[in-house]
Amino acid sequence: MKKILITGAFGQIGSELKDYLRSIYGVSQVISSNYEMMVDNGPFELIDVTNYHQIEAAVIKHQVDTIIHLAALLSAVGEETPTLAWKINMDGLFNVLEVARKYKCQVFHPSSIGAFGPSTTKNNVPQVTIQRPTTIYGVSKVSGELLCDYYVKRFNVDVRGVRFPGLISYQMLPGGGTTDYAVDIFYEALKHQSYTCYLSEDTQLDMMYMPDALKAIVDLMEAPFDKLHHHNAYNVSAMSITPKELAQAIQEILPDFTIRYDIDPVRQSIADSWPNSIDSSDAKKDWNFEPHYDLQAMTKDMLEKLRKKGIQ
Predict the structure, then answer these.
(1) pTM of full prediction above 0.85
(2) pLDDT category, 16, cuts 50, 70, 90?
(3) Does the pLDDT of residue 66 top 90, yes or no?
(4) H or E segment and range at residue 108
(5) Which tops the pLDDT comparison, 17 or 78?
(6) Where are the alpha helices (DSSP H) in the chain?
(7) Where are the domains positioned within the chain?
(8) b/e string for 268-301 if b means 16 or more Cβ within 10 A?
(9) 4-165+209-235, what's its fold?
């Protein structure tokens, strides 16, 4: 990666990734973008990913060779506006891939555990398995995985990606995903010593701390092309946890913290359609994926970082 354009650069991943990439490659080498004007500490372009010409113009202007395509509507929000979710998630990806094909750019596009469905095996889900999601977000992610594979095989576009689990971050508030509770709980623990969770206490889902996610993106994008057996949609995960287990980890540091449950049927049904755990062995074998943070290390760091931000 030499000159990088990030779409969706002010979302949960992008807000941290742009600074992380700038610390590695230089501020001037990483161009952020968003569908509305934003203030940034580096190069910025106004881009609606459903507009092919705006993406193309930014690639030409900055001589971009890598596109990190993060712009998307997430699972819970997507169910409220499925037509818009399809338009952003699929039309946006198609435009990025077409620009990449024309200008020979490398592309990163994240998929998600949302690409799995209730007919997928629940535990230790393999890299290649049945995928029949029941949300528009999941449908768009499976379609995106197939489209990326097509562009690799048909046009030799270097497209890479991972299936992210729920991502936990101290820098950004969540953006409408089913796993948002795993971020909200830390804020509420510090501010109110209690949290009301919208998922049941035994809902087991894969999670990852944001520093591990950022490193995974760079490690995958820098890996030799010929070493990759799948190119996109690599399973990655750091921990498989329930709300009860996360609450217990917080209670080890904040003994007075309490949790109660008020189930949201929509988010619970989405979570129930996803696996309990996934197998990341292909990512470890092909490009040495290895998360640093487990549940305890992540919990300790989250609480420390939020306190430094003044959350208490």
Answers:
(1) yes
(2) very high
(3) yes
(4) strand 106-108
(5) 17
(6) 14-25, 52-62, 75-80, 82-86, 92-103, 136-155, 181-192, 210-222, 243-251, 265-272, 281-287, 295-308
(7) 4-165+209-235, 167-206+239-275+293-308
(8) bebbebbbbbbbbebbeebbebebebebeebbee
(9) Rossmann fold (3.40.50)
Quick check: is 137 catalytic? yes
CA atoms of 300 and 310, how far apart (whole Å): 16
- Tell me which CATH code domain 167-206+239-275+293-308 carries: 3.90.25
| Angstrom distance (rounded) from CA 189 to CA 198 | 15
Cβ-Cβ contacts under 8 Å for 104 (sequence gap 6 or more) = 65
| Cα dihedral 167→293→299→111 (10° resolution) | 10
CB atoms within 10 A of CB 237: 25
Q: What is the pLDDT of residues 260-301, one digit of tens each?
A: 999 999 999 999 999 999 999 999 999 999 999 999 999 999
The C-alpha atoms of residue 31 and residue 27 are separated, in whole angstroms, by 8
Partners of 209 in the β-ladder: 168
Among all chains, which residue has been given the structure tokens 């705006």? 54
Closest CA to 4 of 28, 25, 30, 27: 30
Q: Which of 206, 308, 305, 196 is nearest to 247 (CA)?
A: 196
Catalytic pick from 137, 151, 209, 293? 137
